């Protein structure tokens, strides 16, 4: 709606003003413009079976692994105007026909705190609008759904891609659910699922809330997974209050990164400024074979994180006497969301101070507090 700014009389609003979509956390999704890929740093990844995280905050659920690949900015596709990144999914091995209970989906779970004001599950449930830019080598009617965390209240929807290999903006308006249980704490408050391939068991009827569990798709819509080498790209994903899709909520890059880091924080070798050293912690040797130190995380995470170590032999402990060892196993315990310790084969001097580092880009510490 037009706003007139007058130096004498201040601001005048002409027409209706939608305050829900004008201030604060307008887009309830995080990393909707696909800027951050902390785990994979833009590399192409083969999608594993079950649910796994790829670009920050986004998962792919795959009934069977090694059927899809995903990459930030896959190929040489130019993103839509206003965006510099996208997620690109390619079918490497087709699944056709799909089993009745098969599911392949692109998904983000939203923390309950971030959707508490939607009042889903009550008579005051708010209308929301989902919008995104999408491009595929296939055309036709595609599907997705939103659901509660338990996936027993679901709204299946459709969107259309009319031109192959052309960016299209989709917009879906959804009246809020007045029943069901919707978490408003740090659990899974709302799930957005975009279908890549779903069998008959988990396909439903569009544009109506249902208590049928785990619905991902709409009967008769396109299943990308059926076609080898088919592509599906997406960016600018936004879920907001109101019945109209508004401009994308561009948060500052620092703010968006911190939002991502509430769920995942990564230490990767080769990213530091001192000869490409990444400092992962500091502490003291308790014995000749055990070091205890800390790695203060950037933000407080959603819950106590797990720690996954990739290529542990690429990490090292060193001090002024040099490198102690390259054989390190790493544990985490409740130390105020910090790294707790590492056990080494030998070589430490008891009570001496050591820094914990890596220069190898294949060396990763992934702290995860994902939903």
Task: Write out key terms for the chains shown.
six-stranded antiparallel beta sheet, seven-stranded antiparallel beta sheet, globular, Jelly Rolls, 1 helix, mainly beta, 371 residues
Continuous helix count: 1
Helix content: under 10%
The best one-word shape is globular
Placed side by side, the strands forming the largest sheet appear as 22-21-25-18-19-24-23
Describe it:
- The protein is an all-beta fold and 371 residues long.
- The chain folds into 2 domains: 3-261, Galactose-binding domain-like (Jelly Rolls, Sandwich); 264-368.
- It contains 1 helix and 26 strands.
- It has one helix at 253-261, and strands at residues 3-6, 10-13, 45-46, 50-53, 59-62, 68-72, 87-91, 103-111, 128-136, 140-147, 154-161, 168-174, 188-198, 203-204, 217-218, 231-241, 264-268, 278-285, 290-294, 306-310, 315-319, 322-325, 328-331, 341-344, 353-358, 364-368.
- The protein has a 7-stranded antiparallel β-sheet, with no helix packed on it. Strands 3-6-7-16-9-12 form a 6-stranded antiparallel β-sheet, with no helix packed on it.
- Strand 4 (50-53) and strand 5 form a beta hairpin.
- Mean pLDDT is 88; it is low at 1-19.
Itemize the secondary structure elements and their pairings.
Layout: E1 3-6, E2 10-13, E3 45-46, E4 50-53, E5 59-62, E6 68-72, E7 87-91, E8 103-111, E9 128-136, E10 140-147, E11 154-161, E12 168-174, E13 188-198, E14 203-204, E15 217-218, E16 231-241, H1 253-261, E17 264-268, E18 278-285, E19 290-294, E20 306-310, E21 315-319, E22 322-325, E23 328-331, E24 341-344, E25 353-358, E26 364-368
Parallel strand pairs: 14-15
Antiparallel strand pairs: 1-2, 3-6, 4-5, 5-8, 6-7, 7-16, 8-13, 9-12, 9-16, 10-11, 10-13, 17-26, 18-19, 18-25, 19-24, 20-26, 21-22, 21-25, 23-24
């Amino acid at each position: 709606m037009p706003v007139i700014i007058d130096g004498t009389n201040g601001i005048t609003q002409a027409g209706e003003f939608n305050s829900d979509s004008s201030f604060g956390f307008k887009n309830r999704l995080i990393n909707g413009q696909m800027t951050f890929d902390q785990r994979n740093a833009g590399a192409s990844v083969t999608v594993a079976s079950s649910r796994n995280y790829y670009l920050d905050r986004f998962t792919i659920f795959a009934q069977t692994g090694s059927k899809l690949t995903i990459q930030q900015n896959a190929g040489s596709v130019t993103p839509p105007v206003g965006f510099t990144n996208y997620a690109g999914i390619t079918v490497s091995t087709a699944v056709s026909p799909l089993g009745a209970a098969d599911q392949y989906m692109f998904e983000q779970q939203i923390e309950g705190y971030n959707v508490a004001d939607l009042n889903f599950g009550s008579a005051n449930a708010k209308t929301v609008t989902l919008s995104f830019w999408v491009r595929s080598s296939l055309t036709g009617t595609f599907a997705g759904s939103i659901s509660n965390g338990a996936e027993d209240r679901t709204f299946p929807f459709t969107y259309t891609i009319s031109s192959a290999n052309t960016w299209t903006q989709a917009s879906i308006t959804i009246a809020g659910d007045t029943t069901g249980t919707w978490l408003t704490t740090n659990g899974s408050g709302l799930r957005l699922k975009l279908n890549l391939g779903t069998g008959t068991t988990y396909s439903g009827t569009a544009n109506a809330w249902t208590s049928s569990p785990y619905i991902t798709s709409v009967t008769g819509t396109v299943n990308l997974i059926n076609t080898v080498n088919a592509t599906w790209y997406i960016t600018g994903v936004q879920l907001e209050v109101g019945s109209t899709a508004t401009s994308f909520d561009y948060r500052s890059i620092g703010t968006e990164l911190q939002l991502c880091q509430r769920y995942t924080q990564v230490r990767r070798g080769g990213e530091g400024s001192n000869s490409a050293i990444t400092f992962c912690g500091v502490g003291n040797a308790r014995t000749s074979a055990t070091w205890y130190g800390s790695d203060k995380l950037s933000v407080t995470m959603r819950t106590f994180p797990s720690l996954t170590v990739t290529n542990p032999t690429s990490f090292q402990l060193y001090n002024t006497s040099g490198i102690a060892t390259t054989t390190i196993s790493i544990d985490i315990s409740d130390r105020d969301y910090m790294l707790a310790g590492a056990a080494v084969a030998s070589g430490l001097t008891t009570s001496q101070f050591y820094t914990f580092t890596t220069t190898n880009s294949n060396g990763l510490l992934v702290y995860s507090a994902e939903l």
